[in-house]
C-alpha cells in the first residue's frame, strides 16, 4: 500500500499483513543540475530506475540565478542533486564574478527552495576549500582557507546553502575527480603519454583521486536507503598519492591493458616548476569516515577504481 510518510516530500511503500514484504523506495522527483559533466553523466549511468530530471545549462544557466527558481517551481523536486559547478580553477582567477554566480548565488536559490518546500539538497563541493597546510586528512569541520577564486566560490556556496537550509542540505566535498567523461587528469595523461617522449608531473601536491562513478553510487545509496542527514561530509577514493604517483600508475595500468604501446619517463617536478594562475593546496587528503559510517560503505582503493575506469574507457 502507498502512504504518505510524516515528511510530505516522501512517499513510501509500507507493507500490511495482507501484502508481501518489499523494499521501501522513496517515490519522489529528483532533479540533477548538470547534464554533461563528469559527475552528472556518472549519476545517469548509475541511476537504475530512478529517472531523475537532468538540467543542462541551456535549460537553466546557473549564471542567471533567477532561472533556478523558475525551474524548481516548475519541476517541484523532492531531491535536488547539484552536480553542476564552475570548475575552471585557473580561469576563475579572471572570472570570479561568474564563478560566484554559479557556485554561490545559484546554490543559495537551490537551498532556499529546499527550505521552503521541505525538499532536500545534496550539493557537491571540493577539497579546494582548504589551504593544504594540514598534516593529516581533513575532517569536515576543519578550518577552511581557500587559496584561489574557485575555492572561494565553492566555500561561499557551502555557506550560503547551510545558511538558507541547514536542515535540508547535505554537502559532499570530493577531490581529484576523473571519469570516462569530459576532460580530466587520467585522459589528459593518456593523451600526453602517447604524444610526448617524456613528462614532468608535479610531485609535491598530495590528494586522493576519486572515480566519479563511485561518488555517484554513494549519492544514490544515500537516497535509496533514506540516509539523508544534513551537514558536511567528505568522499574520495581510499588512499592518497601525488599527481606524479598518479601519472605513473596510469601509465603502468594502461601499458598492462594495451591502452599505451610504450613507456615514457615520468619525472617528478615541483609546483614551482609548473606555475599556474591559481594556487593549489599542497595537501588536500579528505577524511571520509563520517560518510562511510552514515552509509555503511568503505571507499574503494584508488588503484582499483583506476583499473575499472580504464577498462571502461
Ligand atoms: N573535477 C574535479 O576534479 C573536482 C574536484 C573536487 C570537487 N569537484 C566538484 O564536484 C562537482 C562535479 O564536478 P565535475 O567534475 O562533474 O564537473 P564538470 O565535469 O566540470 O561538469 C560541470 C557541470 O557544471 C555544469 N555547468 C557549468 N556551468 C554551468 C552554467 N553556467 N549553467 C548550468 N550548468 C553549468 C556543466 O553543465 P553542462 O552539463 O550543461 O555542460 C556540467 O554539467 C562540482 O561541484 C565540483 O566543484 C570536482
Outline of the structure:
The protein has helices spanning 38-45, 66-75, 96-117, 149-164, 185-195, 212-224, 243-257, 289-295, 302-312; strands at 2-4, 11-13, 30-33, 53-55, 79-82, 120-126, 169-174, 177-178, 199-202, 206-207, 210-211, 231-234, 241-242, 266-269. With 313 residues, the chain is of the alpha/beta class.
Helix content: 25-40%
| Secondary structural class | alpha/beta
> Which fold name fills CATH's third level, the topology?
Rossmann fold
Quote the beta fraction: 15-25%
Q: What's the total number of strands?
A: 14
> Radius of gyration in whole Å, from Cα?
20 Å
CATH homology superfamily name: NAD(P)-binding Rossmann-like Domain
Identify the overall geometry. Answer: globular
Q: Helical stretch count?
A: 9
| Overall CATH class | Alpha Beta
Major sheet description: 6 strands, parallel
**CATH architecture label name:** 3-Layer(aba) Sandwich
Spell out the helices and strands N to C. Answer: EEEHEHEHEHEEHEEEHEEHEHH
Round the mean pLDDT to the nearest integer and report it. Answer: 92
Which blocks of ≥5 consecutive residues have pLDDT under 50? Answer: 1-27
Distance between the termini: 43 Å
Ligand inventory reads:
NADP nicotinamide-adenine-dinucleotide phosphate
The strands making up the biggest β-sheet line up spatially as: 4-3-5-6-7-12
Overall number of domains:
1
Amino acid at each position: 500500500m502507498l502512504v504518505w510518510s510524516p515528511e510530505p516530500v516522501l512517499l513510501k511503500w509500507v507493507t500490511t499483513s495482507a501484502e508481501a514484504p518489499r523494499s521501501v523506495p522513496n517515490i519522489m522527483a529528483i532533479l540533477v543540475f548538470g547534464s554533461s559533466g563528469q559527475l552528472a553523466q556518472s549519476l545517469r549511468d548509475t541511476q537504475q530506475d530512478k529517472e531523475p530530471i537532468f538540467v543542462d545549462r541551456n535549460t537553466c544557466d546557473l549564471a542567471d540565478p533567477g532561472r533556478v527558481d523558475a525551474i524548481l517551481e516548475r519541476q517541484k523536486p523532492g531531491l535536488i542533486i547539484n552536480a553542476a559547478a564552475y570548475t575552471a580553477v585557473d580561469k576563475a582567477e579572471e572570472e570570479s564574478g561568474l564563478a560566484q554566480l554559479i557556485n554561490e548565488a545559484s546554490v543559495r536559490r537551490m537551498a532556499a527552495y529546499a527550505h521552503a518546500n521541505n525538499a532536500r539538497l545534496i550539493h557537491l563541493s571540493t577539497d579546494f576549500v582548504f589551504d593544504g597546510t594540514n598534516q593529516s586528512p581533513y575532517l569536515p569541520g576543519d578550518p577552511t582557507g581557500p587559496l584561489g577564486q574557485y575555492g572561494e566560490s565553492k566555500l561561499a556556496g557551502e555557506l550560503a546553502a547551510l545558511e538558507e537550509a541547514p536542515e535540508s542540505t547535505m554537502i559532499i566535498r570530493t577531490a581529484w575527480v576523473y571519469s570516462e567523461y569530459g576532460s580530466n587528469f587520467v585522459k589528459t595523461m593518456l593523451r600526453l603519454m602517447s604524444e610526448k617522449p617524456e613528462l614532468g608531473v608535479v610531485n609535491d601536491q598530495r590528494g586522493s583521486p576519486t572515480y566519479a562513478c563511485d561518488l555517484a553510487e554513494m549519492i544514490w545509496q544515500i537516497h535509496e536507503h533514506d540516509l539523508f542527514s544534513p551537514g558536511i561530509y567528505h568522499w574520495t577514493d581510499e588512499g592518497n598519492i601525488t599527481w606524479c604517483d598518479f601519472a605513473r600508475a596510469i601509465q603502468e595500468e594502461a601499458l598492462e591493458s594495451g591502452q599505451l604501446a610504450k613507456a615514457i619517463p615520468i619525472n617528478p617536478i615541483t609546483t614551482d616548476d609548473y606555475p599556474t594562475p591559481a594556487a593549489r593546496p599542497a595537501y588536500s587528503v579528505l577524511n571520509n569516515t563520517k560518510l562511510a559510517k552514515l552509509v555503511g560503505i568503505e571507499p574503494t582503493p584508488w588503484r582499483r577504481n583506476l583499473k575499472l575506469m580504464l577498462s571502461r574507457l
